[in-house]
Write a structure and sequence with these properties.
Helix content: 40-55%
Radius of gyration: 19 Å
Largest sheet: 7 strands, parallel
Structural class: alpha/beta
Number of strands: 11
Distance between the termini: 33 Å
Order of helices and strands: HHHHEHEEHHEHHHEHEEEHEHEHEH
Strand order of the largest sheet: 1-4-5-8-9-10-11
Length: 355
């Protein structure tokens, strides 16, 4: 594989010195880009876009052609694993993801098996390999998966945007069943992320979108425990290079100290926590990623620049910060506002990296 020409993201995730704060955007290949919408139209629908490595490569590279981002992130979906388990993923127009066969019966749950990523998720692994070659060392490629608990939410509820009644009922009435789902999911995510690493991913991220809906004790038992299990099973090196990992729980600022104990390399933050407070609490033991409110990108370029400076100043001097949004970029964001963000980070952050 070609040697990285820009390894700023990798060094920041490993808390090594950098010349500036690297930046990438969650959901950076998405509907806010006209070229993405054109490719999606050619693909026919969202799942066809995800399952075609050529299309996945094309949309992964699109934001890099517009913005001087410091990383590419694999274009895929967090629900590829439960789809490979046979739950029947589909996307209803205007309603988001749904499953034909959500997990409701004990026999269905006990019958779950870990999919082989090289067989059942071959299209993702092929996309990773193809994207890595296409990048040709320009920037690192981030692979990702949903967390075991977030995947379980969709698998049990059958769709997103719910009140979590089904899964929380299971959590309190039949915790043994939920633990079984989560254990299978953790094994699946570990195998999936390791396959992505072997195919060329140079960092990996676990998205725990719904962990913040849990109580304190439930989060530790049903979400963080399984992310910790995954981290323990991840490949830490590949091709003589260190492969850093990131965990991100939306609404997870309550549990930063516990997240550090997972042995992750970096923690993603949403916009509800102050970066300086987060840095103090993790005591520079891990890198921090985030955490601009995505709604800032609906404002003027002057406001975007000012808000970027606030986040940078809040983190302060030194290594270990990766700039990102506190959640995925909105489809209603103007591309020129994303450009203003990236340029502001690169320009304003240099003064925080002077020895």
């Amino acid at each position: 594989m070609t040697k990285l020409r820009n390894d700023t993201l990798i060094r920041a995730l490993l808390r090594q010195p950098t010349e500036y704060t690297p930046v990438w955007l969650m959901r950076q290949a998405g509907r806010y880009l006209p070229e993405y919408n054109q490719t999606r139209a050619r693909a026919g629908d969202f799942l066809s876009l995800c399952k075609n490595p050529n299309f996945a490569t094309e949309v992964t590279l699109q934001p890099l052609a517009r913005f001087s981002l410091d990383a590419a992130i694999l274009f895929s979906d967090i629900l590829t694993i439960p789809d490979a388990m046979g739950l029947g993923l589909y996307f209803a127009e205007g309603e988001g993801p749904r499953f034909v066969r959500p997990l409701r019966e004990e026999w269905e749950i006990r019958s779950l098996i870990v999919p082989d990523p090289d067989v059942h998720l071959r299209y993702v692994i092929d996309a990773v390999s193809q994207i890595r070659k296409a990048l040709n060392g320009q920037v690192p490629l981030i692979g990702f998966s949903g967390s075991p608990f977030t995947l379980a939410c969709y698998m049990v509820e059958g769709c997103g945007g719910t009140d979590f009644r089904q899964i929380k009922t299971m959590l309190y009435q039949r915790p043994d069943l939920l633990h079984h789902i989560l254990d299978v999911n953790a094994q699946a995510v570990t195998a999936y992320l390791n396959a992505q690493i072997e195919a060329g991913a140079q960092a990996v991220m676990i998205f725990d979108t719904w962990g913040g809906a849990l109580s304190h004790s439930a989060y530790l038992e049903f979400s963080l425990h399984y992310m910790t299990q995954i981290i323990a099973g991840l490949k830490r090196e590949h091709e003589d290079a260190r492969i850093p990992n990131i965990i991100f729980t939306k609404g997870g600022g309550l549990w930063l100290e516990h997240m550090v104990n997972s042995k992750c390399d970096a923690i993603g933050l949403d916009w509800t926590i102050d970066m300086s407070e987060a840095r103090r609490r993790v005591n520079d033991q891990v890198a921090l990623q985030g955490n601009l409110d995505p709604a800032v990108l609906f404002a003027s370029s002057n406001t975007i620049t000012a808000e970027v400076e606030k986040v940078l100043a809040s983190y302060g001097h030194g290594a270990g910060h990766v700039f990102n949004l506190g959640h995925g970029i909105s489809q209603f964001t103007l591309p020129e506002n994303a450009l203003a963000l990236v340029e502001a980070v690169h320009t304003l952050s240099r003064k925080y990296h002077i020895d």
